[in-house]
């Protein structure tokens, strides 16, 4: 038997590892091929599961043919009506007053609740006639402010016959009083067209130096020897607050909160007290003293509300002028009894404390930007950013909440002082203004004493 040559033995030794590598590679490819085949099978089983749902949805809601769409015009009108209704995202949302060219900065009702005046950053004051809160259109009176005047606050004066507007100019804050501002009822449109536009009856320039006016409120002075004239309070963003006679424009006096800055100020409904929310947790209250002839004699600081742990953002008097409701950044609402013998050093008393029942997205307690109490003293309307909420004034219980009541921050809130007409009968109504160029009318929620 021939002996193999060394060359052939070398070839065989080298071939074995090579063949092993080839066989191993083939086996690995077969294993990977089998793995991917099984994964494709799984995907193939999953994918069809979504297909029947989609086809079922298409089957349930087929697209109308073009001819059918043309024939269903009444149905299309109904669709638009539904769309309009969807815009009223809350059951208490009654109507929206449009036509403002910029953010609405303030609003107020006349004493009879039939006229609603709005101040807008476009330099126009609008007075809407509320003959029916649910109406599709309203009679409107436009008042163009002097060039360069940007209104920041507004109040009715002399019942409903005139409005006083606070506006900011480069030189500082000014007050303008316009007379004969009735927005006439619909039946008087012809006569209204012949009437001259409202004129400025009086004005004051640089009333708070360079500071702008944050709030302006007017009430009829009926307490003591008050003769029923309108008394106005303009609160600056600085530290001063000024009183004015509504009809004559006379400067009645100035008080200073002696704090870093003011948040707002208001007068009690009977014209007796002036109260201010400012930078600190304390609220200062002054009494307006009237002479026998009805004129303002002096303004005297008479009490201070102490109890909040952080700045008071807003306050309001109850309709009987005997209590003050305050909202604070400490997350609470307080009701104070100010019907005390302060001349005998009797301090005002805290009657109730409510935790603010509103939280932000992170769960932190929100603070209220504005609060306003209903004419019957039972419902407290409050705002925080774009949220509007109604609380029971007696218990602090939440009656209703409208999240995103406006498409932006709410800039003003006011209850109609009288019942306003809506549909078949009168109702208690609320108005809100927003940075979204809109004013909204709202119904009051149902309230049952618990």
TrEMBL record:
Record region (Disordered): 52-89
Keywords of this entry: Membrane, Repeat, Transmembrane, Transmembrane helix, WD repeat
TM helices/strands, residue ranges: 12-32
SMART domains: WD40 (SM00320)
Coiled coil (residue ranges): none
Keyword Zinc: no
Name by which UniProt lists this protein: Transducin beta-like protein 2
Species this protein is from: Elaeis guineensis var. tenera
Lineage: Eukaryota, Viridiplantae, Streptophyta, Embryophyta, Tracheophyta
